[in-house]
Design a protein that fits this description.
elongated, about 70% helix, mainly alpha, 2 domains, about 180 residues, 7 helices
Amino acid sequence: MVNRLEFITRLWYYFRTGYGTYLTFILGALNTLVVVWYLAISHAPYVGSIFAGSFTAFAVILSAVGVPLSIAIGWVHLKKSPAYKSEAEVGVESNPFYFKLTPGIWLDAFGPLYLELLEMSKRVLERDNLLTPDDKKRISNIEEKLKILNEGGYVGAQSTTYFGRANARNTPKRTSTQSEQ
């Protein structure tokens, strides 16, 4: 069962997503239309005549211009601006699952499978004398990282600076009950 603090933080996240993405978008768009119409357009006789004094005509024309303009700005933001790259980098740096195995199939099945396949391949290659000292060193390095990941630890350059960990090897070992959940 999810503990109380985790449940509350999940609710907070869902609230921020729903409010920030959907509710404020709709309310913000309607608010902009109403405020601009009543404070600027309806009191300016020449501008108001362009829309035939109709709020509906104003809303339709503004939407016809605003939606494509917003799409173009969004495209520039994602494809041409360095801002999105920076946002993605911050997301990677702050997400612990870029440096550890995710719970479930990766932690309980694929991680152990990769380690087992690596160990079996290493035994076969050593038996046939096909490994150079550099190969052995690289395989041992990967093997050590897979063991840390399978224990629920962190690897990678970020593992020593983020998530409150002094070193990836300081991560507590997983118990059998953790892997069965």
